[in-house]
Write a structure and sequence with these properties.
Elements: E1 9-13, H1 18-29, E2 33-38, H2 41-50, E3 55-58, H3 64-71, E4 79-82, H4 97-125, E5 129-134, H5 147-167, E6 172-179, H6 185-190, H7 194-201, H8 212-223, E7 234-237
Parallel strand pairs: 1-2, 1-4, 2-3, 4-5, 5-6, 6-7
Helix pairs in contact: 1-8, 3-4, 4-5
Length: 244
């Protein structure tokens, strides 16, 4: 299915690893002009070696002022993938201020800031656009030791809906993807315990965790005109977890 992404300029945050990296690579392959954002220069350098011509920005999105400076001269963007995120796992009774501050800064506040900057540019140009926020099934279900993570992803889902409501009149669509555990380095680190993994797998009708490509395919569909009447949605990529 032709997605029509060629020639469009796409910004992908958290592009150094995992879902973000694979999304940036897939968009590059599809002919999009990709701007990859990561806080880790080495990850960006290796990405450019794999995808010559890709633009990069190295910035910690938890730093509002640094993000403002880094993205201030970005230029026109047609597609945005807000993928950057952190998962700091602690029992509820041991949740720290630092975990709250960092998680809210990256998982929610940075999405607001980057999306504002991109959307304002789209509106000023009178150009339509598409934004995809990478959320989680944890926005819908409580998971042990995920108090802050579940809370930030729940907030991200509602932010997605409000963005869709307010940006729709400007022909800007906003959707989220809500994956189950994905076998990225972060997913492998957090779910390497076989007993812990079994408790989750037993609740997934398809009986497996997601591969990165499953999530990337959903993101590309939501960025494309093939989903031209879809906005404000939270799309599960969860093997049926949320159906149980």
């Amino acid at each position: 299915m032709e997605l029509g992404l060629s020639g469009r300029r796409a910004l992908v945050t958290g592009a150094g690893k995992g879902i973000g990296r694979a999304t940036a690579q897939a968009l590059h392959t599809a002919g999009a002009r990709v701007v990859a954002v990561s806080r880790t220069r080495a990850d960006l350098d290796s990405l450019v070696r794999e995808c010559p011509g890709m633009e990069t920005l190295c910035v910690d999105l938890a730093d509002w002022e640094a993000t403002e400076r880094a993205l201030g001269g970005l230029g026109p963007v047609d597609l945005l993938v807000n993928n950057a995120g952190v998962a700091l796992l602690q029992p509820f009774l041991e949740v720290t201020k630092e975990a709250c501050d960092t998680s809210l800064a990256v998982n929610l506040r940075a999405v607001i800031q980057v999306s504002q900057m991109v959307a304002k540019g789209m509106i000023a140009r009178g150009a339509p656009g598409a934004i995809v926020n990478v959320s989680s099934q944890a926005s819908h279900r409580a998971v042990t030791n995920h108090s802050v993570y579940c809370s930030t992803k729940g907030a991200l889902d509602m932010l997605t809906k409000v963005m869709a409501l307010e940006l729709g009149p400007h022909k800007i669509r906003v959707n989220a993807v809500n994956p189950t555990v994905v076998m990225t380095p972060m997913g492998q680190a957090n779910w390497s315990d076989p007993q812990k993994a079994k408790t989750m797998l037993d609740r997934i009708p398809l009986g497996k965790f997601a591969d990165v490509e499953h999530v990337v395919d959903a993101i590309l569909f939501l960025l494309s005109d093939r989903s031209g009447m879809t906005t404000g949605s939270t799309l599960p990529v969860d093997g049926g977890f949320l159906a149980t």
